[in-house]
Specification:
It is a single chain. With 161 residues, the chain is mostly helical. The chain contains 6 helices and no strands. The longest helix has 27 residues, at 127-153. It is globular, with a radius of gyration of 16 Å.
């Protein structure tokens, strides 16, 4: 895959990240920490999950093979954010996303992931496959964010009247 393909995939991933975050714009601390869905997850928990279990996991641990990142992930609870301001949770997601993009640019789409967990049910062979997986996962969670936001404040992502 070419450098153009790489930038195209990163542009699509960035759009999905923005879509997800836009669902939570304007929500106050109480709304960000409350759950609108029976499963009980909160908007902040979703952003924290994407930071730890998606950006850090797939890009830092799997693609880059960074043992320090793996240790950070092991110490964190991906669905239960630390008790910090919501702005800190959003900032950590932005920082993790920027690191992820840098890893992809450094490694290239054709490279194989450096590390793969023995107990993972499937194996992705290239950075490109991981990026495509993360795009799909982030897009799915953006849809979850849309549903939660609509239940919280009535806002809808795309309305064609």
């Amino acid at each position: 895959m070419s450098e153009l393909d790489q930038e195209l995939l990163l542009t699509v991933l960035a759009a999905q990240r923005r879509h997800l975050l836009s669902a939570f714009e304007g929500l106050d601390e109480e709304q960000l920490r409350g759950s609108a869905l029976p499963s009980g997850w909160t908007p902040l928990a979703l952003v924290h999950h994407l930071t730890v279990d998606v950006e850090m996991w797939w890009f830092g641990a799997v693609i880059d093979g960074d043992a320090t990142v793996r240790a950070e992930i092991e110490a964190a609870d991906g669905w239960h954010p630390p008790d910090v301001r919501s702005s800190t949770i959003f900032q950590r997601y932005a920082e993790a996303s920027a690191r992820s993009d840098a890893i992809v640019r450094r490694r290239g789409l054709a490279a194989a992931p450096v590390w793969w967990p023995d107990d993972h049910p499937r194996h992705l062979d290239t950075v490109a496959e991981v990026v495509l997986h993360v795009i799909a996962e982030t897009a799915a969670h953006a849809g979850h964010a849309d549903a939660a936001a609509e239940l919280i404040d009535g806002r809808q992502w795309l309305v064609l009247d």
